[in-house]
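Question (not urgent): is this output format expected?
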Amino acid sequence: MISPEQQQAYHEQSQFNIIHVDYGLDLPGRDKYADAAQKLDEWVADGVLIQDEKPAIYVTEHEFSDMQGRKRLRRGFIALLKVEPFSSGAVLPHEKTFKKHKKDRLDLLRATGAQMNPVFTFFSDPDGKAADILAAAATGAPDSAFDFVDGAHNRMWRLTDPDTIRALQKTIKKQPVFIADGHHRYETMLNFRRETRKNLGGKLPKDHPARWGLVYFCTAEDPGLEVTSPHRVLKNLPDFDPQKMLKKLDKFFSIQKTADNCALEDTSNPDAPHGFAMQIGPELYCLTLRKGVLNKAMPEISRALRELHVTVCSELIVRPLIGDSGKILDHVSYIVDPSEAAAAVQSGACQAAVFLPPFNMNHLMDAVETGQVLPHKSTYFYPKLVTGLAIYRYSV
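Got this back:
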């Protein structure tokens, strides 16, 4: 989601910005969903949006700088995915959703009959076959190229060769697709499919467009697949006292005061210590999980889930500090930029910040494949997808 200020700015930026359809303004006396549908129809009628003549898959590249300032390249593709319930195991989520957000997306889909923003997914490609196909497709002059406001350079190529498309489809067949970002959008697709089937008397034709949804695919092995965890910034802590806070955490962690940033490096070794950095006021501490704590402190949580840094942070840092003092969002903010999180503490606006290490993709996939739901705001996939690169319109 974007802020109200960003929403207004994008609306003013161009009369042809996709935000006029995907995220309309709430104006007095206006139905923003009906306005979105009218705008989409106008753009098609006026030739602003043109339907491709051939079926295609859209290969994309995002060239960007990661959180450490290193140059990265993420390659993927946009296509349609058959919408399946989570119980089928074909599509795997990793976080919970909120009814309010799903209602908004469903109201927009009903009105426009179109999807503008693909669900961000990834799949395993251990032999690199999909990566090779995408690399071969991403040659020559792109059909679209532009720089976005987040600094990422975006390129896109149409892939229309039937044999190449079939080869790419084969690399994903009979294996699960993991949702990285867009859980609300995917559940909206499910809800729309169920609603459409009900409206048609309980039977949905095999070729009905509601059976499919707009999805971005990336391989789990892609070196540009950047996933981190938002840092936890704590506020309104009951009886705030830095020394008492450290004492509560001492039974779980070895704590060392430091003048430098801790080494926050994830590992595939499940027995290795889990490390965090924590700032309380002007002081910075390194927290290392004590040996044997993982199983003793969280025996009711599955092994795959309790080995994740986000679970350790949630259960052994955040919960002990906020206690039973109310809703978690009353005490925790989620900030991706570590300098912004540190500034919130240094300014006195918040009392402490917990800095999480990078995410290990194997740990994430192991947890999700066992049906686990991760703590709120566990992952942040960067850069975000640009809305409107490709549009799936049911009525075409």
